[in-house]
Amino acid sequence: MSGGHGRVAVVSWSGTITALSSIHHGDQTRGVLTLLRRELLILPDGSSVEVPVISGNTFRGRLRRVAEELLREVLDYEGQLSPAAAHALRGGGSLVRTTREPLSGARLVRIRELLPPIGIFGAAGGGAIIDGALTVHKVIPHVRETNHLTEASATGSALDLPQVESYTRQDDCGTRDFAVLCPDGGDGPAPQMLFRLETFPAGTVFSAGLSLRRPSLLDLAFFVELLERFAEDGHLGGRVGIGHGRVRLDLRCSTELPPLPDWRAVLEQRRAEALAAIEELA
C-alpha cells in the first residue's frame, strides 16, 4: 500500500459471511415459487453447473444504505433533502436532466471530499455519473462445485443446498375483530394468499470480498466504521421484514491501515459545506 495526497492505493478485505437466518435472493418466479438467483459456473473438468450466488449488487446496496444512515447521524439532515439527493445517497440516484452545469472539475472533487458515501459508492446525480472507490465481489456459497473458486473444502452439493419455505396470509373476514373494523364485511372474503421462497438455509457459509481503490483517508476511516456497523446487524437479500437475511460478517483487512482521521469530527466541523454538497447531487 502506498500513499500520496492523503490517499492509499488499494485496501482489500476478504473472508466469509455466514447466514444466521435463511437468505432469500430471488430471481425467477414460477407460479407461487420464487427461485434463488443462479449463475452458470465452469468446473475444473470443463463441465458446467448452475449454482445459487448472491450478487455483489445486493451486498453493495445494503452497505450503501447503512452508509447513508451513518452520514445522517452526523449531519442531521433528516427531512431537509430533496428527493433526488436522497435517492443519490440511498440508492445510487439516476441520471436525469439538470438545468445546472453537470458536476465536474473542482465541484466534483469537493463533493467527493466532503461526502464519504459518494467517494466510496459513487452515484448518479447532478447530471453526471460519479465513480466510487468500492469494488464488491459476488457472495459465493461454500459448496463442492465452488471449492476451486473459494478455496474451501466443502463436501455438500449446490444441487442440495436450497430449501423451500412456504408462507400464507390467512383471510380473517369472518372474525369478530374484522367486523369491528368493517361492519358490512366489504365485498366478500379475500382469497388466501400462498407463496413459496427458495432460500439458502441458516448456517450456509459464503466467501466474500471488498476493495477500495485510491480512497481518501477520510473515506477509509468512514468505511472501517461502516463495516463495523454492518457487522453488528448485517442483512443480505430480500424479505428481511419476515426474518430472512441476517448474517455474520467475518472479513479481514489484507493490509495494515495507516493512522485514520476522526471522520465524524471533520464532517461536524464542515456540516454546512457538506449539506450544500449533498444538494449538488439533485
Outline the structure in words.
The structure is a single chain. The chain has 282 residues and is α+β, with helices and mostly antiparallel strands. It folds into 2 domains: 237 residues, no CATH class; 33 residues, no CATH class. Helix content is 31%, strand content 27%. Strands 3, 10, 11, 14, 15 and 16 form a 6-stranded antiparallel β-sheet that branches. The chain has a 4-stranded mixed β-sheet with strand order 4-5-13-12, with no helix packed on it.
Helical region count? Answer: 9
Distance between the termini: 35 Å
How many whole angstroms does the radius of gyration measure?
Answer: 23 Å
Percent range for β-strand residues: 25-35%
Principal-axis shape equals globular
Q: What share of residues is helical?
A: 25-40%
Low-confidence stretches: 1-5
Whole-number total of structural domains: 2
Features:
282 residues, single chain, 2 domains, alpha+beta, six-stranded antiparallel sheet, four-stranded mixed sheet, disordered N terminus
Summarize the structure.
This protein is an alpha+beta fold. The chain is about 30% helix and about 25% strand.
Q: Which helices and strands appear, and what pairs or packs with what?
A:
Blueprint (H helix, E strand, L loop, with lengths): L2 E2 L2 E2 L1 E10 L6 E5 L2 E4 L1 E5 L5 E5 L3 H20 L7 H9 L13 H10 L1 H6 L1 E3 L2 E3 L3 E3 L3 E2 L5 H4 L12 E7 L6 H6 L11 E7 L5 E9 L3 H16 L1 E2 L10 E8 L9 H7 L1 H9 L3
Parallel strand pairs: 5-13
Antiparallel strand pairs: 1-2, 3-14, 3-16, 4-5, 6-7, 8-9, 10-14, 11-14, 12-13, 15-16
Helix pairs in contact: 1-7
